[in-house]
Amino acid sequence: MNNISQEDYLTAIYRNLDDSGEIKPNLLASKLEISNAAVTDMLRKLSRDGFVDYQKYKSIKLTSEGESYAKNMLRRHRIWEVFLHQTLGMPWDKVHDEAEKLEHSSSDEIINLLEEFLDYPEVDPHGYPIPDKNGKMKKNKAVMAITELSENESAKVIRVNDDVKNLLSYITKIGITLGKEIFIKDKLEYDGSVLIVIDKKEINVSSKIASNIFVEKIK
């Protein structure tokens, strides 16, 4: 995967920034599933082009230009995902790869027309906010991973990590979709798994899966 585009690097950096607005190069390499050397080469280029602040052995920051570029690519990607899912009926676990192809070949004019056609969606099919043409986006709700809930608590699914391979197809099979209400019946200490109730059915969910499903607690 060494042929990852500049746009994909910037998007990956933006999506994985920590609370201080930085990301370590080795974490970026892990997220993109490429070598540290390949990441270093691209970071040097992005730094020369004014998209990132990068110094060897230090964390990466996006410049204002880099952030704007990344948000624009996210906007394109997520609007295409909404169109593919909402208009064409493509399953939510299939839209990411198709949108990845379409985002690079679309003009801003096409994206603006799609946004209008879709009645200005605020989130993509996985619950992530969509930047508007000025780079502004709906503020994320205060969500938590299922693993952070306690026993006997109820919650509604708000967002699902679309970066984890095969996660979406699996949770669809067990009945988890956006807006679905779940109940935490038990948390198993020995492996971190969670016993949840969905539509009156009990399902044991691994810690890895539960940590990638984000919910809003129902009080």
Structure description:
- The chain has helices spanning 6-15, 25-32, 36-48, 64-87, 95-103, 108-117, 167-173, 207-210, and strands at 52-53, 61-62, 144-145, 154-160, 181-187, 194-198, 201-205, 213-218.
- The chain is α+β, with helices and mostly antiparallel strands and 219 residues long.
- Among the domains are: 6-62, Arc Repressor Mutant, subunit A, CATH 1.10.10.10; 144-218, Ferrous iron transport protein A (FeoA) (SH3 type barrels, Roll).
- The strands form two sheets. A six-stranded antiparallel beta sheet has the order 3-8-4-5-6-7. Strands 1-2 form a two-stranded antiparallel ribbon.
- Helix 1 (6-15) packs across helix 4, helix 2 (25-32) packs across helix 3 and helix 4 crosses helix 5.
- The mean pLDDT is 92.
Which key features would you list for this structure?
219 residues; Arc Repressor Mutant, subunit A; SH3 type barrels
